[in-house]
Request: fold
Amino acid sequence: MGIFRKPPAGSLEAILDLNQLAVNKFITANRPVAPAASNVTFGGTMVGQSLLASFYTMSEDFVPASMHCSFLMGGDPTIPIIYNVEPLREGRNFTHKQVKAFQDDKLIFISNWVFSRQRELGPPNLQNVGRIAVPDKDKFDVGSTLLRKYLDDPNNGESKESKEAQGTIATALDKGPAKYWLPKDFFSGERKHEELNYFIKLRNSITNNESLRRPAGEKLTFLNDHRANYLAISYYSDAYFLLSLPYFYGLPLFNCKISVSMDHSIYFHQSPSMSNEMYLRITNEESNDGLHVMKSEWYDSVTKEKKITALQGALVVYNMDDEKPDAKL
Reply:
């Protein structure tokens, strides 16, 4: 597998880049990345890289239909990750792949992908495409700006350690591969919410030509293959699920003793175009005794159409002096 071009440093393309070791075996081209204020590899990295590894082992006219994965151990961001792709079934219209991620021979992550052959949409009477009225973005604020305003408020009640941790998140929001527009009360924990909405857009270029595929023998990049849009949306489908939980309960951002993603699922409804701003709706579907099921719906802010639905199971235990958050069973 050749190298078409070197991905821009710090870009999502560089974060997800893989080198091929064997027909069905790949290794991270760069060190895995830990999220700000964390010391383990971001789960979205393994989701995106397991998809990229699958793409390298299959026909280019297949695109993902669904994915289910489990986070078995916290990944070490100082050690490369090796991905083994196992073909489970290769049919004419559907292909199934299982991808296992290892560090030092320890299984840390496993994903099961279903791919369908890309085809023309059926007649309109057989389509049920979700659409939404996207709100005015003026009601939101740039994530890093919003967080710094909150941290500069002398009455926010945050400890020095908490401010330092949240400062690293502000820097990541400034310099990360994507730009966020968040609700203006996202960090303050002013009240409980039933739903979280925000906008996200990639900072780096990505092709929107749906027929574009990588040249034979070359690496898949964000400019030579439209399937890179699936990589990007898969990576970000896991982002900020855990950080958004306090928002639903009117709690400060860093108000938990344990915060762990257990599993993650994605259902792909339409081909995404990550060159557009994406609008998200996140809900905390069920929760009890620290176990949460969260759901996110991703809409293209231009076409207003739903692109994916993602679900995540999480364990979050809060620091509650008087009472724990209300259950939602």
User: Anything to note?
Assistant: DSSP finds six helices and 13 strands in the chain. The CA atoms of residues 50 and 322 lie 42 Å apart. The radius of gyration is 20 Å. The first helix runs from residue 12 to 16.
